[in-house]
Amino acid sequence: MVKSTALHGLFKLLNNQKFILGVWILLALLVAIKQAFQPTNNNYLIFKYVYFHAVERLPLYIPYPNEHLDTNHYGPLFSLLIAPFALLPNYIGMLLWQLANTLFLYFAIKQLPIGIRKVNAIYWIVAHELLTAMFGLQFNISIAAIIIFAYVLIDKNKNFWAAFVIIFGFYIKLYGIVGLAFFFFAKQKPKFILYCIFWAILLFILPMLFFSPSYILQCYQDWYVSLSEKQALNASLTSMQDISVMGMARRITGDASISNLPFLVIGLTLFIIPYLRFKMYKIPDFRLLFLASALIFTVIFSNSSESPTYIIAFVGVAIWFVLQEKPINPYSIALFIFALLLTSLSPSDLFPKYIREAYIKPYSLKALPCILIWIVVTYQLMFKKFILNPVKTDGE
């Protein structure tokens, strides 16, 4: 009886969203404090100096070795987003940046139209992958939130704000455009298109109001060149990026010349085919599974993907898993455990270092479980018989 009471108490605690929020905030605080005492906080310094370089009308996409160790790859609009943090002392700016990204993802997941217990399960499933992204002070945490909010807002027929979220994400980091994957689920599609055009124009012009039109136009040109060059560099056999379908193929074969194109054609074809199931659009589980597919697809078919980028894909993995009908298929459980071990835990000290350094990093194997799960998701989207049930939002 005592043991049963203790287990019930633990279960209740783990499903208390205030407790979960506290854990997420604590993780953000601890990581930010730890990173504040590092000799260099490279990503945050890159982000911070985007604002100061814009103020001084300096190029945004060239190296500044006296300031940080890499180059910026975010759009000119990012200079305004980072400004409130950049103006603060580093340790405060870093802390608030970390909290802002973390809370954004927390509240995005909270909006998903599924039962509370499923939402809570997603929080716990992605917690370790979130930690990996936190250590890099990554904006990818917010990219995951942007894609989720795009879905949720379209689902709620709030097309004006859905269009804003998508275009805003696109102008910050190209991944944001993935929100358009949910266009076919939108009601009043002509209005949605007009809203996208409105926000595209407004957000394109917005940085020009703070800096100058000629400077921002040049920045957009430089951004395009920067991203093109980065794509070529990522395709090497030794970069920290290219943890993707293509990266696995290149690194397992040892052939860096393998093109992205055939993989993208196959991937996009498989991604698009479920759109043909028009009658399924009205079924919430079908749409949510499409969200999972989009989140995973975004990462596994990008040769810019690095370890912290997988917070985006892993949210998709979590959504897929909680949507599985009970009793859950043993193969789905095995795939899920495989993803927890190889994708989420492999970058950490909880995983054997020799295996990580000798096999996982050199062959981009962190991507493998997500690739396999995406194939399963795609198969389910194509062939599963979905049943129209009321969406539960307050429990199971």
TrEMBL record:
Localization of this protein: Cell membrane
Topology of this chain in the membrane: Multi-pass membrane protein
Gene Ontology cellular-component terms listed: plasma membrane
TM annotation in the entry: 20-37, 91-109, 121-154, 160-185, 192-216, 256-276, 288-321, 333-351, 363-382
Main location: membrane
InterPro entries listed in its UniProt record: GT87
Any one GO MF annotation of this record: hexosyltransferase activity
Native organism: Pedobacter polaris
Record's protein name: DUF2029 domain-containing protein
Family under the similarity heading: Belongs to the glycosyltransferase 87 family.
Keywords recorded for this protein, A-Z: Cell membrane, Membrane, Transferase, Transmembrane, Transmembrane helix
